[in-house]
Amino acid sequence: MKLSVDNATGRVRLTLPSRASARDGLRWAEGQQAWIAQALTRRPDAVPFEPGATILYLGETVALGWDSGFPRTPLLDDGQLIAGGPREGYERRIERWLRARALDVMRAETAEYAARAGVTVAKVAIGDAKGRWGSCASSGVIRYSWRLILAPPDVRRATVAHEVAHRVHMNHSPAFHAVVRDLYGREPTRERAWLRANALRLHSFGRTS
Fold this sequence. Notes:
Residues 8-197 form the YgjP-like metallopeptidase domain. This is Metal-dependent hydrolase. Keywords: Hydrolase. The protein is α/β, with parallel strands linked by helices. It is 42% helix and 19% strand. The chain has 6 helices and 9 strands; from the N terminus they run E-E-H-H-E-E-E-E-H-E-E-E-H-H-H. A 4-stranded mixed beta sheet has the order 3-4-6-5. It has a 3-stranded mixed beta sheet with strand order 7-9-8, with helices on one face. Strands 1-2 form a two-stranded antiparallel sheet. It is flat. 24% of the residues are buried.
């Protein structure tokens, strides 16, 4: 039996083995209230994409601004991301801009690493998976969390190298990790540790609750 907390919604999820009964699982979960309370306490406050908020972008602190006289498309200038147009829809414009930047950047980095590895990638897509930062399907489609654009570039590139390496080995064998090291240039230990330590924070951006 396993308990986990959804980084985005704060919902507590109970996972049971195939032979376990729901009644036994709920009884066990009721005895884990201290763990649940502690896990929810660690969850950072939501940081909506609203004027005046402070977010991460490329690992740097960026303030969100709004000026109705500015163009609707957000503009990054001197540590501030400013979008114009009506106040209504501001949050969606900020997120669309971040998603677009994530796709552009990681599409280019994926092509770079794929050429280096001598492999092809059918498609690069982005999403907002709660439990993983990237995935590589046997079809050659690689999908990333758009939230990687919030992380430092080295962290993002380490994740891209990891997924491209799956085009060589669809497993996590020693041979696979050797490909990751070859593509990235070294063992991405620090980058993996950064993602583990900051996962909840990255998922707090754009949340409303």
